[in-house]
Amino acid sequence: MKRSDIASLILIVAISFTLAYFVGNAIFNTPESRSTKVEVVNAIEGQLPETPSDIFNKDSINPTEDIRINPSDTDKPFED
User: Fold this and answer.
1) pLDDT tens-digit series, residues 2-59
2) pTM for this entry
3) What share of the chain is helix, strand, coil (3-state, %, to 5)?
4) What are the C-alpha distances in Å from 69 to residues 61, 65, 72?
5) Whole-angstrom Cα distance, residue 19 to residue 12?
6) In whole angstroms, how far apart are CA 40 and each of 25, 32, 43?
């Protein structure tokens, strides 16, 4: 290649990169694409509200209690 070919190639590459940069910023990099709306979350309070008694009454079953069916006094209940 001659020096003038290399110089013209560098000039064409520089012009195309500059053009691509400005076209890309005009199309893809808009202020709307750089920002977004975020939902605001309220702070968690330290106290929980009182549970309604018509839904959680005292006579209902407590799911956190251990349920034992036919408890055994031995350490190995399945041995004869």
Assistant:
1) 778 899 999 999 999 999 999 888 887 677 777 778 899 888 878 878 877 777 777 7
2) 0.37
3) 35, 0, 65
4) 16, 13, 9
5) 10
6) 31, 19, 10
